[in-house]
């Protein structure tokens, strides 16, 4: 399994925060509202693939990025972590700056909330560095201003999401689930995926009644049984992601034949998450998918995982 950044690299006076990527175990989509956004009913679960953000005191706000797909990530005001620091400074009236060093594991534009995890980690790191002392709830309000997936990256674990996905209710989940992730270096554009869903709906409307996450999903999570969870995985954006990126369909079609219990697209894709029965099975499924060369990278992760939190520096003894 991929290892997050070492705890030992942080300079004195710096703050190191780690926040998780997410999967959508269920993602139901409704027709877009007047603001152009589609209402969602989703189940988020955080996974053991993390973004590390190290915040160091500085005059201005700046960002540097390393790790997976780093070359695709802007370091200016378009960066969500940059915006998080600027928003916190504005909200608290501080005139401090910060350098944010981001080490990425979560794929960029992959449907796993990597940018949102950066923003959540940056909010918490700057709050600690600047000693602005905001309550988690206040950080949550700022998080929601930054993007729909940012509040969940703060809280982690398992949660139901409504509205744009930012109205969170914690959900109970037992056990640990093993996932094989098929990653693509080339991401998908979220607006394009939703626009494709609109077109597909216009051509052949689906007859989903209420926009809801069923009780069977909550029961499967509580059972901790991956076989039960496999029965309920669903993503309404799957067909759109498949249309825009045929390789997504290839992975979805092959996952079960190589031993996965089920596979689902995460968020607006293109990441595909295949659920395995246990760790040994996950390693086998990953090896089979790698041999088939269906994605740019195939990795194994577990869920659920914690939300944004401080990584304590390792003390010299
Ligand atoms: O949340 P984010 O800024 O990534 O969304 C980008 C775009 O994706 C939105 O402007 C909208 O076009 C589309 N979107 C949507 N419904 C959502 C989330 C995103 O239509 N629930």
What are the salient characteristics of this protein?
single chain, 317 residues, alpha+beta, Ribosomal Protein S5, domain 2, Alpha-Beta Plaits, 2 domains, 12 strands, binds cytidine-5'-monophosphate, Ribosomal_Su5_D2-typ_SF
Describe, in plain words, how this protein is organized in 3D:
It is built from ten helices and twelve strands. By secondary structure, the protein is an alpha+beta fold. It folds into two domains: 13-171, Ribosomal Protein S5, domain 2 (2-Layer Sandwich), CATH 3.30.230.10; 177-303, 2-Layer Sandwich (Alpha-Beta Plaits). The strands form two sheets. Strands 1, 2, 3, 4, 5, 6, 8 and 12 form an eight-stranded mixed β-sheet that branches. The protein has a four-stranded antiparallel β-sheet with strand order 9-10-7-11, with helices on both faces. The radius of gyration is 19 Å and the shape is globular. Bound molecules: cytidine-5'-monophosphate. Cytidine-5'-monophosphate (C5P) binds at residues 32, 36-38, 40, 147-148, 164, 190-191, 194. The site of cytidine-5'-monophosphate has 11 residues, from helix 5.
């Amino acid at each position: 399994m991929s290892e997050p950044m070492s705890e030992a690299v942080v300079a004195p006076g710096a703050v190191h925060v780690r926040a998780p990527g997410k999967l959508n175990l269920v993602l139901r989509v409704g027709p877009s509202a007047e603001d152009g956004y589609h209402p969602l009913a989703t189940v988020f679960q955080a996974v053991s693939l993390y973004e590390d953000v190290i915040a160091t005191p500085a005059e201005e706000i700046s960002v540097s990025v390393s790790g997976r797909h780093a070359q695709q990530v802007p370091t200016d005001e378009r960066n969500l972590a940059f915006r998080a620091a600027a928003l916190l400074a504005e909200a608290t009236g501080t005139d401090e700056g910060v350098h944010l060093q981001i080490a990425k594991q979560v794929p960029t534009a992959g449907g796993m909330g990597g940018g949102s995890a950066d923003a959540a980690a940056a909010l918490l790191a700057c709050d600690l560095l600047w000693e602005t002392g905001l309550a988690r709830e206040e950080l949550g309000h700022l998080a929601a201003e930054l993007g729909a997936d940012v509040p969940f990256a703060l809280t982690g674990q398992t949660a139901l999401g409504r509205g744009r996905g930012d109205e969170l209710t914690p959900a109970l989940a037992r056990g640990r689930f093993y996932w094989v992730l098929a990653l693509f270096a080339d991401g998908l554009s979220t607006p394009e995926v939703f626009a494709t869903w609109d077109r597909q709906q216009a051509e052949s409307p689906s007859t989903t009644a209420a926009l809801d996450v069923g009780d069977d999903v909550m029961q499967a999570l509580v059972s901790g049984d991956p076989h039960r969870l496999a029965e309920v995985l669903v993503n309404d954006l799957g067909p759109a992601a498949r249309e825009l990126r045929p390789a997504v369909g290839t992975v979805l079609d092959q996952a079960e034949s190589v031993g996965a219990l089920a596979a689902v697209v995460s968020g607006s894709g293109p990441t595909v998450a295949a659920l395995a029965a246990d760790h040994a099975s996950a390693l086998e499924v990953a090896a089979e998918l790698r041999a088939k060369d269906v994605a740019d990278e195939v990795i194994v992760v577990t869920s659920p995982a914690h939300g944004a939190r401080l990584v304590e520096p390792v003390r010299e003894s």
